[in-house]
Design brief:
The complex is a heterodimer of chains A (920) and B (232). Helix content of chain A is 74%, strand content 0%. With 920 residues, chain A is mainly alpha-helical. Chain B has nine helices and six strands, in the order ββββββααααααααα. Classes of the chains: A mainly alpha (920), B alpha+beta (232).
């Protein structure tokens, strides 16, 4: 910092007394010196002071202490202003020696002398005078300026602690104007940014939100915002980065605000010193201007280009995505994409990518794909085309259109075989093969990738994926080896290693290997005492205890997770419920259920139906009503005002089981539970609470259906479909209404099912919705999409009721579409399932027979067909087509010997079936 | 050029000035318009003589607007409506600013009247678009939605979403919501808060309330001066 000298001296003269009359003989020479000084001509003044000293310096009159004080002071100041700093320092030092008691001008001259030494590079004397000033005049405003200069110097030497300390004292200095406080806050922010503390920098910048300080800090925020946003993103603090990105502004607007700030500096500062307000204002304003320029320069130098609108928009898009503001990223991305010539091609592409990613994160696959299509059509020559194609592929994979996704990546690899991202494309492809239920192909793809020139850091992840493939292929020991290998790679990401431990423990659990489970669980806990999967592991521990009949230990493990707030909490609660049911302990079951229901406000999403079912069980076992009055009232309140959070049908069914008791407890009018539900629905419809109305009507439908009044039940459901705002329906209600629409072929079925899948990605009713939607797609000649939807059920819900129907339908459609290989893979997996009903096994065998004929494996086809007829001759809807098929195929055999042999066996089997009783 | 001096009663409260194609300058109080003539009372002798200027000879007309136009002024102004194509740019700007202020008074019919004429006669794109937007706002408030949608289609062609004025965003958001297109309504309502710089003002506030975005993060735990000072 350069001390602002010239105007101070000029202004200072205005308050000085005139020279003494006693030196009149020397008057002309003296007056010439004083005049030049007063007129702002320090060079002439200095020459005149020197001549005066040369001629009259030894005159006795000059030695008069009063006159000499003035002479040395003005001469020193003139030398200072003329740039003769050494002479100035000598004279002003002399002034201090000759006037040890003079208080007048002392602070001012000390301040100037410190500046002179600073400009001479004399650090020792600079420090001496600054120290003396701060000690003697701590309350003068110039103390703040001295501290600021010291902070500047410390900052230049990267001594951020000193810079911070000095600026904090500046900020607290008395008489500091608002502009000074704001600038100090800006400078502190700069220090913190330079010291790598982006969060602290943000704290200073948002310290003043109103008044003059805020006005001035405003332009500062805009200038610093791009750098700060980037830092916060680097520090993985996207929330604050998003906040700071709200300060982005265009450079011309920031410039206009800087000008306004400079104009604000011209306001006079209320002064207290002898120099008067104007002198001090000049010093301060000069200081602020210098600081302003300096801060501005420092920031712009840090990354000037960041303030360009294109870069700001790109940074904002990145921030929106990182802070999970996906809706906002789709809006801004689309706006930029649609802005034609207003934005560059590069920004347009970035915006399109951000919007597609936003839609994908919102699971709005249609919109993501539409946007990708639009881009590909409009800009087929864009250099970023591969990125868009990959996003399109990811979007297709996200909605289960695996073939499209794989084809797109094949297209990418064929068109850009040397693209730097080619390995990551193949990584996606391999992952999708695994997700679509082709672990063999996936394993091969991962193995091929491992042999490529991939970065070393990818290898743990590929090993982990190989383990998943091997597990799916039932090569369990090999899978465990791979998982274990990942746990031992210290360079691998912690989350990946934790997941590998989890994979290992799940294998032990599946194999019932209790000792190995405990050993590896201890190993995990030792390495990850604060691991993010701790609760998941404790749930696995609980499952292991349950498997080995250790009820108390299992309850303790699940209880530990259930009392927490992690995402694993729901599973633990469900398991506790199972344990108490198994133990036939209705009291514990009720206690657990009531605690679960009472905690509903702290749980995300819709409350599970399980605690209500547990309460019903308790009621049946004990004959007592499970819900206490207070909780009952609260739940009825939720039914009216937060129906989406409550599983209404299980709740109302619980009430229905002990209706007279609950009706009394809640003080309700006479009438059945059906009348109560329908009355509540009517009131809710009248008051516009369609969510409540829908919940009550659907319960009524459930009750009517249970009494065999299916048509009456459907009229309630259809009323919900046409009268309620389906967007506000809860999870169970939405799927029920959607399925009703599908059953009646209403056009609303598709959007409702899609809305359900979109809104409730984790819902247990998802397989039902997928199955219904797949049927609609198939009927609309969209076979590929239909199969993709069933693949999801087949892959992710092996325990669902819809698993076997989906697998049978899927393989049936695969055979119809000439994909018997895929059908056989599905059927092989299905036939290994332990929970197949006899008819499902028979259907699977019939389908396998057909597929085997299609792939040219007649031996196995005949064997399977004959096995089917042997095992299930009485399941006519399957046995009849099987008989026809085998008959046709035998008749068509070209080899007469073979034909005769098989015909004989077939006839014998038919005869045997006719004469024997049905198999068990 | 034919200028005529007529004897008509004075009654106007509106001063105008301008010049003719022939280069003649004129100034005076508006006395009336009609029969393709502009009648003004020159300041020299306002009680007796009237200057009649054929409208086909007009080159430009300056209409100074008072800070708070009186009701009478506003009524008189309507007499100049046929001469709007001759108004100079600053007069048209003043007219638009005055029309803008009619929003606060809920005077939608008058806003519609002036902005529709102004939009048809303004040669400058900027002024025309601003007039069209105000006209669209008036149409919205008057419930003339078919006409409004046509106008919006026309205005939307002139602006990219990135440059769309705040009022256009507001109108688009409301119309999208009226049409049941919630996604498009959200798009227009939230866009101004995502552009650079972030829009501010009452209209921006209304849009924020229309489609609220996630709240700002909690206050940063900025170090307090005392804690820094006491740090070792």
């Amino acid at each position: 910092m350069r001390i602002f000298l010239r105007p101070c001296g000029t202004l200072l003269l205005a308050v000085l007394p005139l020279p003494l009359i006693a030196v009149m003989p020397l008057r002309e020479q003296w007056q010439a010196a004083c005049r030049s000084f007063a007129q702002g001509n320090p060079v002439n003044a200095l020459a005149a002071f020197r001549t005066f000293d040369q001629w009259y310096g030894n005159e006795p009159e000059i030695a008069d202490p009063v006159f000499n004080e003035i002479r040395i002071r003005l001469w020193g100041l003139a030398a200072m202003q003329a740039g003769e700093l050494e002479e100035a320092a000598r004279l002003l030092e002399r002034w201090f020696i000759e006037n040890p008691e003079s208080e007048r001008f002392r602070a001012f001259l000390r301040f100037q002398l410190a500046g002179i030494y600073q400009n001479l590079g004399d650090r020792e004397n600079t420090a001496r005078h600054r120290r003396a000033f701060l000690e003697s005049h701590p309350d003068l405003p110039e103390s703040a300026l001295i501290r600021w200069v010291m902070a500047d110097e410390a900052f230049a030497e990267k001594d951020f602690a000193t810079a911070r300390d000095q600026l904090l004292q500046v900020r607290e200095a008395a008489h500091l104007p608002p502009s000074g406080r704001s600038l100090a806050a800006a400078a502190l922010a700069l220090v913190e940014l330079a010291d790598g503390n982006a969060g602290a920098a943000l704290g200073y910048l948002r310290s003043e939100t109103e008044g003059t300080g805020a006005l001035i800090l405003d332009c500062w925020r805009s200038l610093v915002a791009p750098v700060l946003t980037r830092r916060l993103l680097d520090e993985d603090d996207p929330e604050r980065a998003a906040f700071v990105s709200g300060w982005f502004d265009r450079l011309p607007d920031i410039g206009a605000r800087l000008t306004r700030f400079q104009q604000a500096l011209d306001r006079p500062l209320p002064g207290r010193g002898r120099q008067g307000p104007s002198v001090r204002s000049s010093i301060w304003n000069a200081h602020w201007r210098g600081q302003l320029g300096k801060l501005s320069h420092s920031l712009k130098k840090s990354d000037d280009s960041l303030n360009q609108p294109e870069k700001l928009y790109r940074l904002r898009l990145r921030t929106l995505l990182r802070s999970k503001r996906h809706g906002a990223s789709t809006i801004l991305g689309r706006a930029l994409f649609q802005s034609g010539e207003s934005v560059s091609a590069a920004l347009r592409t970035s915006a399109c990518k951000a919007a597609i990613e936003g839609y994908m994160n919102l699971r709005q696959w249609d919109r993501a794909e539409d946007l990708a299509h639009s881009f590909l059509e409009r800009f087929p020559e864009d250099p970023d085309l591969p990125d868009i194609l990959l996003l399109q592929a990811r979007s297709s994979a996200g909605r289960g259109q695996w073939k499209t996704a794989l084809d797109l990546v094949d297209r990418l690899l064929a068109s850009w075989p040397e693209h730097p991202s080619r390995h990551s494309w193949r990584l996606y492809q391999a992952g999708w093969l695994l997700d679509m239920g082709l672990p063999g192909e996936a394993r091969q793809a991962f193995a091929d990738l491992a042999q490529s020139s991939i970065p070393e850091t990818w290898k743990p992840f590929i090993t982990f994926q190989m383990a998943r493939c091997l597990e799916a292929l039932r090569h369990v020991d090999e899978a465990a080896e791979h998982y274990r290998a990942v746990t031992g790679i210290s360079a691998a990401a912690a989350m990946l290693r934790e997941s590998a431990w989890s994979g290992l423990l799940k294998i032990h659990l599946r194999q019932g290997a209790d000792a190995a489970f405990h050993k590896d669980l201890a190993g995990y806990r030792k390495r990850f005492p604060e691991g993010t999967l701790q609760d998941t592991m404790t749930n696995l521990e609980g499952s292991n205890h349950r498997l080995h009949g250790r009820h108390e230990a299992a309850v303790a493990a699940f209880g530990k997770v259930a009392s927490g707030t992690s995402a694993a909490n729901g599973f633990a609660r469900e398991q506790l419920s199972l344990l108490f049911r198994e133990a036939r302990d209705p009291v514990a079951l009720q206690r657990h259920a009531l605690a679960w229901i009472s905690a509903r406000s702290s749980l995300s999403g819709t409350l599970s139906a399980t605690p209500f079912e547990d309460c019903r069980l308790y009621q049946r076992e004990t004959g007592k009503a499970a819900l206490p009055t207070g909780l009952l009232q609260a739940l009825l309140e939720d039914l009216d005002h937060a129906p989406a959070r409550l599983p209404a049908t299980p709740f109302l069914s619980l009430l229905g089981d002990s209706w007279p008791v609950y009706r009394n407890r809640a003080g309700l009018e006479e009438g059945s539970v059906l009348e109560f539900a329908e009355g509540r629905a009517e009131t809710a419809f009248r008051e516009g609470r369609t969510g409540t109305a829908a919940a009550c009507l659907l319960f009524a439908a459930h009750l009517l259906a249970a009494h065999g009044r299916d048509d009456s039940a459907d009229t309630r459901r259809i009323r919900v479909l046409h009268s309620a705002d389906t967007g506000s329906l809860g999870r169970e209600a939405l799927i029920e209404v959607a399925e009703t629409a599908a059953r009646y072929d209403f056009p609303e079925a598709t959007p409702l099912l899609e809305a359900f899948l979109e809104r409730f990605p984790q819902a247990p009713g998802r397989p039902r919705a997928l199955l219904s939607l797949a049927r609609i797609r198939w009927e609309n000649d969209r076979g590929g999409e239909a199969r993709s939807l069933l693949q999801q059920v087949f892959r992710h819900w092996p325990d669902a009721l819809e698993y076997a129907p989906a697998a049978l339908l899927l393989s049936h459609w695969q055979i119809e579409e000439g994909l018997p290989d895929r059908a056989l893979a599905v059927l092989d997996t299905l036939l290994q399932s332990a929970s197949l009903a006899a008819i499902q096994t028979a259907e699977a065998l019939l389908l396998r027979t057909r597929a085997d004929f299609q792939v040219g494996n007649p031996d196995r086809a005949f064997l399977t067909g004959i096995r089917l007829l042997a095992l299930y001759p009485d399941i006519h809807e399957v046995a009849e087509p099987a008989r026809r098929l085998l008959g046709e195929k035998i008749a068509a055999l070209p080899d007469p010997g073979e034909r005769a042999r098989l015909q004989q066996r077939f006839d014998a089997l038919l005869q045997e079936n006719d004469s024997s009783s049905p198999p068990a | 050029m034919a200028l005529s001096v007529l004897a008509l009663p004075a009654g106007a409260d509106l001063n105008v000035s301008g010049h003719t194609r022939g280069g003649m300058e004129f100034t005076g109080r508006l006395a009336g318009t009609g029969d393709r003539m502009l009648h003004i009372l020159p300041p020299e002798n306002p009680e007796i003589s009237l200057l009649g200027i054929p409208t086909e000879s007009l080159e430009s007309l300056t209409v100074p607007f008072p800070d708070s136009p009186s009701a009478r002024f506003q009524d008189e102004l309507e007499r100049l409506l046929p001469l709007l194509p001759f108004w100079d740019r600053s007069s048209r700007e003043s007219l638009l600013a005055w029309a803008d202020s009619l929003q606060a008074l809920d005077d939608w019919p008058r806003l519609y009247l002036w902005t529709s004429h102004l939009a048809d006669s303004a040669p400058e794109d900027g002024l025309r678009h601003r007039a069209l937007l105000l006209k669209a706002r008036a149409l919205y408030e008057l419930g003339l939605f078919i006409q409004l949608d046509k106008e919006l289609e026309r205005i939307n062609r002139a602006f990219s979403p990135l440059e769309a004025p705040l009022l256009l965003c507001w109108l688009n958001a409301h119309r999208a919501r009226d049409h049941g297109d919630d996604q498009q309504a959200r798009f227009w309502a939230r866009l101004p808060a995502l552009r650079i710089p972030v829009a501010s003002g009452p209209l921006a506030e209304q849009l924020r309330e229309f489609a609220p975005s996630p709240a700002a993060p909690p206050a940063s735990p900025s170090p307090q001066p005392s804690s820094i000072r006491s740090a070792p």
